[in-house]
Design a protein that fits this description.
The chain is built from nine helices and 23 strands. It is an alpha/beta fold. Strand 19, helix 6 and strand 20 form a beta-alpha-beta unit. It is elongated. It holds the Pfam family Esterase_PHB. This is Phospholipase. It comes from Streptomyces javensis. Keywords: Hydrolase, Signal.
């Protein structure tokens, strides 16, 4: 893809046999013609194999299934395929280890089926894997090389309840060539070079309405997501896959409710630094490029300038608290999780709607003390209040079930509305944020109450 500069157009892209027993199914055409009726002889060749991955709220990016496309539809006639009929092995980093097969069923698409009775007749065989396997991750600091990394062996015949052979076991093993990541795959990759020559990579989701009718007189909100310090990299991927800060705004059910552009820039390596707190999004070079990118994007796409939203976690939240005082009339609202900042600048942003949250026992960005001598969210909210903003506070466990979590959020929002408050602050008691107390954001982006509130705000 060509680089994009502020001075130029904003352009973007709107089996071989290894050894003797392993087939790379990329050599077979995924569009090969096939009869329309299910094969009952067991002679139903595999055409192409893909890994299905998932970005999880707390546990990073994981391989959760394998989808094998067959020449003919697979119909179990009401039968169930035993997981023991298939063995799946992951070869990553020079190590080979088995994955745990949990369910196997046919499907009409290369995707998982969350229904208990999964198994619609179709050309795809879906092999679900335990996401808690130790080797389930799809990335470390960078994405793992997943192409041809998984091997699937059928070790037992698959038959209908009446005994008809549907898929025959054999000595050949299949390796994947494709990797499917729902929602992430809908983001375009691009880069932007600012007026000084500094470059930011980014990923962009474009709403379906714009893609279908780019010339229509419709303007869309823009959500700008600022990743955490762990996603500073040159891969233009982990800002989408390390957590759900960006993908949650692009998932189909969210876009149906709130169609919007989602812009997810990534800070490059080597890590820019100007002093102990001039890191990541607060680095002057990064901040200036981010501002130019947002300005360029809003002039090149049909963006509603009154509905620009900033969302960030950890150092991304630090970026929000750093950027808002410098651009106090640009953004309609912000979501900031586990951040820190300068209390002396809060008097310039008392008018901006914000919903912030933080775990009280956060070991990475302390709730009160923050980092690098800059206080955490609790102290910043106090400074906002002292400057004249009315802050509505709530506290509940971060590991509550989604329905209860949202009920608490709704009650907090109702209380804020009754008192005329547009700044909300949620704290999570010690021991209630799973995996790491720093990961307070896991529930934030799944919370429909919070997201609905965000999109309700306009400048």
């Amino acid at each position: 893809m060509r680089k994009m500069t502020r001075r130029t157009a904003f352009a973007m892209a709107a089996g071989t046999v290894t050894g003797s027993l392993v087939i790379n199914t990329a050599t077979a055409s995924a569009d090969a013609p096939a009869p329309g009726r299910p094969a009952a002889s067991g002679a139903n060749p595999a055409l192409r194999t893909a890994l299905i991955t998932q970005v999880t709220p707390r546990d990073n990016w994981r391989v959760t299934a394998v989808a094998i496309r067959h020449a003919d539809p697979i119909d179990m006639r009401g039968g169930v395929i035993p997981p023991s009929a298939f063995q799946v092995t992951a070869d990553l980093g020079g190590q080979s280890a088995a994955r745990t097969v949990t369910r196997v069923y046919p499907n009409t698409v290369a995707g998982t089926d969350d229904l208990p009775g999964a198994g619609r007749p179709g050309r795809y065989l879906v092999i679900e894997l335990d996401p808690d396997d130790a080797n389930a991750r799809a990335s470390g600091t960078d994405p793992l090389p997943l192409q041809r990394a998984y091997t699937v062996r059928q070790v037992a015949d698959v038959r209908t309840p009446g005994g008809e052979l549907v898929l025959a076991a054999g000595p050949l093993a299949i390796r994947n060539d494709d990797v499917i990541t729902p929602v992430v795959d809908d983001f375009t990759a691009g880069s932007f070079t600012d007026s000084t020559g500094f470059e930011l990579a980014f990923r962009l989701y474009q709403p379906e309405g714009f893609v279908r009718s780019p010339g229509a007189a419709v303007r869309y909100p823009l959500v700008v997501t600022l990743h955490g310090g762990g996603e500073v990299a040159d891969n233009n991927m982990t800002q989408l896959t390390a957590n759900r800060v960006a993908v949650t705004f692009a998932k189909p059910e969210r876009q149906r409710r709130h169609p919007a552009f989602v812009l997810a820039p990534q800070i490059p390596l080597p890590r820019p630094m100007d002093g102990p707190d001039g890191t990541d999004w607060t680095d002057p070079k990064v901040r200036a490029a981010l501002v130019e990118l947002i300005d360029a994007f809003t002039t090149q796409r049909p963006v509603d300038a009154d509905r620009l939203y900033l969302v960030g976690l950890s150092s991304g939240a630090r970026g929000i608290f750093n950027l808002l005082p410098r651009r106090p009339h640009t953004f309609a609202a912000a979501l900031a999780t586990a951040g820190w900042g300068d209390p002396s600048t809060m008097d310039g942003i008392t008018h901006i709607p914000m919903w912030t949250d933080h775990s009280i026992d956060d070991p990475v960005v302390p709730y009160r003390e923050g980092r690098f001598g800059k206080p955490g969210t609790w102290t910043l909210m106090g400074a906002l209040e002292s400057a004249g903003a009315r802050v509505t506070r709530g506290e509940w466990a971060n590991d509550l079930p989604k329905a209860e979590f949202e009920a608490r959020s709704r009650a907090l929002l109702n209380r804020a509305r009754r008192t005329g408050s547009h700044v909300l602050f949620t704290s999570y008691p010690p021991g209630t944020t799973p995996v790491s107390a720093h990961f307070a954001w896991a529930q934030t982006y799944e919370n429909d109450v919070v997201i609905d509130w965000l999109f309700d705000q306009s400048r």
